[in-house]
Amino acid sequence: MGIKRGTTLAAVAVVVALTATACGGSDSAGDTAKPAGAVAAPSQAPSSGDGYGSGYDAAAPAGDAKPGGQLAIAQDEKLGSVLTDSAGFTLYRFDKDTAKPSKSHCDGDCAKTWPVVAAGDATAAAGMDPALLGEVVRTDGSKQLTVAGWPVYRFSKDTKAGDTNGQGVGGTWFAAAPDGKKAAKAAPAPGGAGQTSGALTVAKDPKLGEHIVDGNGMTVYRFKPDTAWPMVSKCEGACVAKWPVVPPVDKANAKGIIEKNYLVLDRPDGKKQQTVNCWPVYTFTGDKKAGDINGQGVGGTWYAVAPDGKLITVQ
Questions:
Q1: Total Cβ atoms within 10 A of residue 297
Q2: Cis omega (within 30 of 0) for bond into 188
Q3: pTM of whole model > 0.90?
Q4: Phi, psi (5° rounding) for residue 126?
């Protein structure tokens, strides 16, 4: 089908340019792994009057729909991470459609208001699992792009990149998140993993010994495939939904942690991630209360973090 699943798989990593001596040193847990290549910045919104470039007609029938091109992830103040086309226009999903099996129920006048995204030359956004891209054959024989099985559309009343005028229309149309779900900014549960804690400290566990926890007492983890120089996170998309990034913490609120190269990683998905000794750090949604260490050793790649930033590999 024309969808480029593999072209950005190696470009999912996050890279931050630092000085050559900013993040030095290594331990025995894969610290010297080579980072993946940097991701090119998504294209900017077109300057043509119709907002889509080269002849796009918002009232065009579904068969004339334009492909999404290089998809991107935009950050919306109310919705969080939103999937867009190459021009920055929001992509939507329809509640009356189905994902398993993929089926579109938007035809005729509906498809004029909600132009389908053709399944042609689509490439996964940086930070998105390329395997989520697919296609569905519509009743007119054309092929429509799907994300996690859900057919995706644009909205004819979005006139510029970043518009989300289709959000909530009719109680059935919603902006699509990079994982194909409805875009929605997560509201962290009190004391739950992933909550902005504003602090890091050191706790002592009978099994792990001294290890870093966030301000809610939730265990902090590292991912072995990540690298510290350059600072690269290889946890994106569905991974980061399961292993939320630790948000930036003021050094004054880091108690007992060695403050060597205590930097913040700017991720292409818009999130800012705290690092310890240049290693990106995370919490785990499988930890439900302070003191839980359910993420320790998961997949042989996730481990708690010592106060100096090194992995604690005890099982």
A1: 15
A2: no
A3: no
A4: -60, 130
Angle CA 176–182–185, to nearest 5: 100
Structure tokens at 299: 């997949």
Among 90-104, 179-193, 229-243, name the one with the lowest average pLDDT. 179-193
CA distance 308 to 116: 51
Instruction: For residue 180, give both structure tokens.
Output: 């194909």
* Site of tokens 């930036």: 248
Confirm if 138 and 144 have CB atoms less than 8 A apart: yes
> For 86-127, how does the pLDDT look when each residue is reduced to its tens digit (9 = 90+)?
999 999 999 999 999 999 999 999 999 999 999 988 998 877
Give the SS3 label for residue 137.
strand
- For the record, the structure tokens of 44 come out as 């900017």
**β-bridge mates for residue 90, sequence order:** 84
Q: Which two tokens mark 66?
A: 């334009």
Residue 131 corresponds to which tokens in the numbers above?
């395997």
Torsion-angle region of 130 (φ positive above 0: left; ψ -120 to 50: alpha; else: beta): alpha
What is the sign of the dihedral through the CA atoms of 293, 296, 39 and 174? Answer: negative
Quick check: 290 and 217 in contact, CB under 8 A? yes
Sheet strands (E) in the chain: 72-76, 80-84, 92-94, 98-99, 102-103, 133-137, 143-147, 150-151, 173-175, 200-205, 209-214, 221-223, 227-228, 231-232, 264-266, 272-276, 279-280, 302-305, 311-312
Q: How far apart are CA 120 and CA 102, in angstroms?
A: 17
Q: What angle do CA 30, 31, 36 make, to 5 degrees?
A: 90
Indicate if the alpha-carbon torsion angle 80, 148, 58, 121 is positive or negative: positive
For 56-68, how does the pLDDT look when each residue is reduced to its tens digit (9 = 90+)?
333 333 445 788 9
Q: How confident is the model at residue 50 (pLDDT cuts 50, 70, 90)?
A: very low
Contact 183, 175 (CB under 8 A): yes
- Among 218, 277, 271, which Cα is nearest to 248's? 271
